[in-house]
Specification:
Elements: H1 12-32, H2 38-54, H3 59-71, H4 74-92, H5 95-106, H6 112-127, H7 130-147, H8 152-169, H9 174-183, H10 187-212, H11 222-233, H12 243-253, H13 258-273, H14 281-290, H15 299-305, H16 314-332, H17 335-345, H18 350-368, H19 371-388, H20 393-405, H21 415-424, H22 428-431, H23 436-451
């Protein structure tokens, strides 16, 4: 998308009006009317095409811009396919049921949200993938919260915060590697510099989750034993079922590409299922596509285990393609470039440059819903500006992570936001106010910019 040829040069205010209209359509459709995000995006695409035709841009050029942009998301589409397969294979292997079963034995309602946050932080750093953390450990914690009658919104907020802490600080994370490479700094120097904003965000978040965790006397635990009994009766709980998780960690440490890691993890999970089940190959293939269906007498267990499969990812994949197509039109019509040019020309001090970086990162996430583009576009736009005000490039890398990587799950129509909602069953709007770590990212990066502290000069 970065090489998309601009066909129109709208004025700054014309571009702003279009952007505000897009945000208005998105917000009203999703929040007020509860529409699936696909519908407002499709409406916006139609309106942008009409706008382009009125500007004398040929339909073929508009379509090509959409196609070029959608192609940039094919790697993510394949990952989503494999995550769907991974979830279903980890259910029949017993990995997810076993994690939940033993989780109920170790996690108590006291400090529950803080424990969820810390564990997802550890898992996220270990495997370097926020979405994989959410889809595995996150699913287990959501089930626990549901059974203990705890707030699902708060639990999801803690899961998202921990998962994206790991995504941000792990040397195995693709976004962390992308942010450091696009500004040309060492990966571990980048991670070390991010600690200035990440550690305070972590401390504030864990204190908040600890304070919001219920007291033991306020939570009913009557259903936990029945849940565990039903879960154990499925014959999916086995010690060896945790081996796929160990394998996933090893492959991540070895820096095996995500596609191969997910594929190998899925194959290993399927192989383990033969140790305790006699599913036919036809049944396994059906589960890998349509997901696993649980038929126990406990509806909570059924809800937990009836998930996964390639088909479960279709909602997310179609949204990703639509969102990227919309982004392609925005670039083809010069709307994004017009706003970027105006912002860049008004930033002349260190504090204003970092503030502009944060606002741009949040803006790209809001408009396009893609964290990689938020990192790429913001990094390329502001790289020279940081040199002009005497700031080291590692300040830029930190800012685009604080306002790019961790903000994406807060946008209802973003790639991460939709995926998390689909996997956890909690809407982005509901968990938004409780994703403390993600909310603190852009706030702290702007705070330190204006205070002048932790900034590195050239």
């Amino acid at each position: 998308m970065l090489r998309t040829e601009t066909k129109v040069a709208p004025s700054f205010w014309e571009a702003v009006i279009i952007v505000l209209a897009i945000i208005g359509i998105m917000s009203a459709s999703i929040i007020q009317f509860g529409a699936p995000p696909h519908i407002p995006i499709l409406i916006i695409i139609t309106l942008l095409i009409i706008y382009g035709l009125l500007k004398k841009v040929r339909l073929q050029q508009l379509q090509q811009g959409m196609v070029n942009s959608a192609q940039s998301g094919l790697a993510a589409v394949f990952i989503f396919f494999l995550i769907g397969v991974l979830i279903s294979s980890w259910i029949i292997s017993g990995t997810i049921p076993t994690l939940i079963y033993y989780g109920f034995s170790t996690v108590t309602p006291s400090f529950f949200f803080a424990i969820v946050f810390v564990i997802t932080c550890i898992v996220g750093i270990t495997i370097g993938s926020s979405l994989t953390t959410v889809a595995t450990v996150g699913v287990a914690f959501i089930s626990m919260a549901s059974t203990m009658d705890l707030s699902l919104a708060l639990t999801a907020g803690a899961i998202v915060s921990g998962a994206f802490f790991g995504d941000k600080m792990s040397p195995l994370s693709d976004t962390t590697n992308l942010a450091s490479s696009i500004v040309g700094i060492d990966l571990f120097e980048h991670i070390k510099n991010m600690a200035w904003t990440t550690v305070p965000a972590f401390i504030i978040s864990i204190i908040a989750y600890a304070l919001l965790s219920p007291k033991r006397t306020t939570v009913s635990l009557e259903n936990i034993e029945a849940f565990q009994t039903t879960l154990f009766a499925t014959n999916l709980v086995h010690w060896y079922a945790l081996l796929p998780l160990v394998l996933l960690v090893i492959l991540s440490i070895k820096k095996i590409p995500a596609l191969l890691t997910l594929a190998i993890g899925s194959i290993f999970g399927i192989a383990l299922s033969f140790l305790h089940d006699t599913l036919s190959m036809a049944a396994i293939l059906d589960i890998l596509f349509n997901g696993y269906t649980s038929n126990t007498l406990n509806e909570d267990v059924n809800t937990l285990l009836s998930r996964g499969g390639i088909a479960s990812m279709f909602f997310t994949i179609t949204l990703v393609l639509l969102a990227l197509s919309m982004g392609g039109l925005l670039f083809t019509l010069g709307i994004i470039q017009s706003i970027f040019a105006k912002i860049e020309s008004t930033l002349t001090t260190a504090r204003s440059v970092i503030t502009g970086t944060a606002i741009t990162g949040v803006g790209v996430n809001t408009l396009i819903g893609e964290q990689y583009l938020a990192i790429l576009l913001t990094g390329e736009t502001f790289r020279d500006q940081y040199k002009k005000v005497g700031l080291s490039p590692k300040n830029l890398a930190r800012a685009i992570e604080d306002a790019g990587t961790v903000v994406n799950p807060l946008i209802p129509w973003s790639v991460c936001g939709i995926f998390i909602t689909d996997v956890l069953g909690v809407s982005t709007v509901d968990y938004f106010p409780f994703a403390f770590f993600c909310l603190l990212g852009p706030i702290l990066t702007i705070f330190f910019a204006w205070s002048g502290r932790t900034l590195s000069k050239i």
